[in-house]
Hints:
By secondary structure, the protein is of the alpha/beta class. The chain has one domain: Rossmann fold (3-Layer(aba) Sandwich). It contains eight helices and seven strands. It has a seven-stranded parallel beta sheet, sandwiched between helices. Helix 5 links the parallel strand 5 and strand 6. Bound molecules: NADP nicotinamide-adenine-dinucleotide phosphate. NADP nicotinamide-adenine-dinucleotide phosphate binds next to helix 1 and helix 6.
Amino acid sequence: xxxxxxxxxxxTGAGSGIGKQTAKILAQGGARVxxxxxxxxxxxxxxxxxxxxxxxxxxxxxxxxxTNEADIEDLAAFIKSNYGFxxxxxxxxxxxxxxxxxxxxxxxxxxxxETNLKSVYLVSKKLGRLMxxxxxxxxxxxxxxxxxxxKAGAKIPHYSSSKAxxxxxxxxxxxxxxxxxxxxxxxxxxxxxxxxTAEGLKKKRFEEAIQRNTALGRVGKPxxxxxxxxxxxxxxxxxxTGSDLLVDGGWLIS
Length: 254
Ligand SMILES: NC(=O)c1ccc[n+]([C@@H]2O[C@H](COP(=O)([O-])OP(=O)(O)OC[C@H]3O[C@@H](n4cnc5c(N)ncnc54)[C@H](OP(=O)(O)O)[C@@H]3O)[C@@H](O)[C@H]2O)c1
């Protein structure tokens, strides 16, 4: 098990899917974890589920929209007053949509870019300040990108381009934060079973296409992505920064 003793961590989009599993592994490793999301009931339930399996209460929820600067300033103030430090940040919150370029309204383009890309800049900037001031030891940011950031998919031009930008932004952030002892990496999941992909996976054709096009022949589980995110966040990855870890079951090589 990875060791996150004496670690304070934030996971955005922690109320479901990959974020929830990531928060769970961090807490099981000994971290105190702040679960961030817009829907309070979801993050409260996730925190309760995580705490249920632990002897000490490790998870708390904080309602915030990662595209909203004031919300993120409140989150930074909450962490400062409750913990004083921040060591690990997982920028996981994200969303998708389906449209061709010609059919897409500019507002839909903006919604995807703001949620998937601008939020990573905003949260890293506001919480990065706290991480810079935090005591020495393992300090890491992990941004959740996507296989689609490597290979454009049909009818997700806004999503693909936002995730390609997250991979590149990660490298820029890694360069800027290295002198503060903060490592920054991204993880690019392939297809995993979460609420984000639930609609698509209901279609037999879509699931069969994933099985056919993936070397491992199956859809991934959220914990299989979370395992890699938490590795990148841990001290076991102490010499890794500015990297993207592709966790796609072998889609790109197929
Ligand atoms: N599942 C896959 O196959 C797959 C593949 C590649 C990449 N990814 C990436 O993995 C990440 C996690 O996705 P997932 O698959 O686990 O889907 P998910 O279960 O839908 O998780 C996304 C979470 O982000 C939160 N969120 C969305 N917009 C937000 C905002 N503005 N502010 C705060 N929280 C927000 C959502 O909660 P609220 O709506 O309550 O805020 C939700 O809990 C995303 O970045 C996604 O793009 C997933």
